[in-house]
Amino acid sequence: MNINFPEGFLWGGALAANQCEGAYKEGGKGLTTVDLCPTGQKRSEIIRGKIDELRVLEGEFYPSHEAIDFYHRYKEDIALFSEMGFKCLRVSIAWSRIFPSGDEEIPNEEGIKFYDSLFDEMLSHGIEPVVTICHFDTPIGIIEKFGGWKNRKFVDFYLNYCKVIFERYKEKVKYWMTFNEINMILHLPFMGAGVRFKEGENELQIKYQSAHHELIASSLATKLAHEIIPNCMIGCMIAAGDFYPYSCNPDDVLKAKEKERENLLFIDVQSRGKYPGYAKRFFKENNIEIEMEQEDEEILEKHTVDFIGFSYYASRCVSTDPEVLKGETAGNAFKSVKNPYLKSSEWGWQIDPKGLRITCNSLYDRYQKPLFIVENGLGAVDKVEEDGSINDDYRIEYLREHIKAMGEAIADGVELIGYTPWGCIDLVSASTGEMKKRYGFIYVDKDNEGNGTLERYKKKSFYWYKEVIATNGVVLKK
């Protein structure tokens, strides 16, 4: 077992504005995509762009409207993260706090000041901000007017937003990521890019055209960041996890390769600077014509990212056998054939620590750029005991084995910047809107219906992760 983490390794945690801040109408904030995503059956249809309504529906519960009230409680929460010893904290900026409708000429100063205060609080505790610029958080105002990222105008709106936050926070933020899980535009197009579909539309065409606009925006934001903050590192971010062939049948192996490429296309463009040949073939065979402006290829080639950020919850398994396909299981918006060699979480996500080592090696071999694991964790139902304790040994086991796998990847030669487990404090689930699917080291007293005191309680994993950080992972050798 090779567990030797480099000096200065960024141990921390991850959260996102749309899942934790709440205060959805305070401080001049405008509506954003998640504010229109209720719990229940309609949520799935909305986040996939299947319901063409941009309003709060009567009789529905919207968990993001209060979330865990991080907007008002961030000092309390950052103090807890500091107690654990966090070296960094991954957060996101709510675009609609800075530009409430998305297309204003002058930013909302109250929103800007909130993130000034947030970053100042983090830095006062020695916690490095790692900031996602757009984390499933597109302003509704510009979606209403211009139809989401399928409209090229969004590139300019996004860059105007980037310019404001780069200039304002250039002394406070070194690490940036352009889009959260950019490949989710293929799976959750409304949540990921404000994209909705009408009956009869070529959905693949719209998804990949929207993705192209995000890729151009990402490249130009990378250029802008390097100009305004010369010492910064700006990266991309993908929902990752290698695809395994279910069998050694060449059809299964080829299918796994195709699914892998569907996922990695986005990072190929952001890190290598051009669309690969396999993508051009896919576009041609599926009647997809990407509208490009004359300078687009040059923009992509010149302005590639500094590091690869990614989430890892599970590996995936694919098959071409109709009988095997009957055994599909759940995942992070990805369906997967059930791998018979792996256990599953309460939500059906398969648990594969070794898959994290495999994924790290695959990404590093492919791109030769530093990696940053910015999401990883176990969603589970936690029980508060009579004495107030929360004994989440299952979470400790999950994280322990994944951190060990990271250590092995580093020993393999992978350059890894840091690790920010997802939902370091309980927050609202992006896919389902639930609170009972908990990830955090810190329990938040709130249920799926919005009831609770919002009080924070330390779980057993809080003290375990504190020791991991304090020993730079050495404790895992015991």
From TrEMBL:
<dbReference type="GO" id="GO:0008706">
    <property type="term" value="F:6-phospho-beta-glucosidase activity"/>
</dbReference>
<dbReference type="InterPro" id="IPR033132">
    <property type="entry name" value="GH_1_N_CS"/>
</dbReference>
<keyword id="KW-0326">Glycosidase</keyword>
<keyword id="KW-0378">Hydrolase</keyword>
<dbReference type="InterPro" id="IPR018120">
    <property type="entry name" value="Glyco_hydro_1_AS"/>
</dbReference>
<dbReference type="GO" id="GO:0005829">
    <property type="term" value="C:cytosol"/>
</dbReference>
<dbReference type="Pfam" id="PF00232">
    <property type="entry name" value="Glyco_hydro_1"/>
</dbReference>
<protein>
    <submittedName>
        <fullName>Aryl-phospho-beta-D-glucosidase BglH</fullName>
        <ecNumber>3.2.1.86</ecNumber>
    </submittedName>
</protein>
<dbReference type="InterPro" id="IPR001360">
    <property type="entry name" value="Glyco_hydro_1"/>
</dbReference>
<dbReference type="GO" id="GO:0016052">
    <property type="term" value="P:carbohydrate catabolic process"/>
</dbReference>
<feature type="active site" description="Nucleophile">
    <location>
        <position position="375"/>
    </location>
</feature>
<dbReference type="InterPro" id="IPR017853">
    <property type="entry name" value="GH"/>
</dbReference>
<comment type="similarity">
    <text>Belongs to the glycosyl hydrolase 1 family.</text>
</comment>
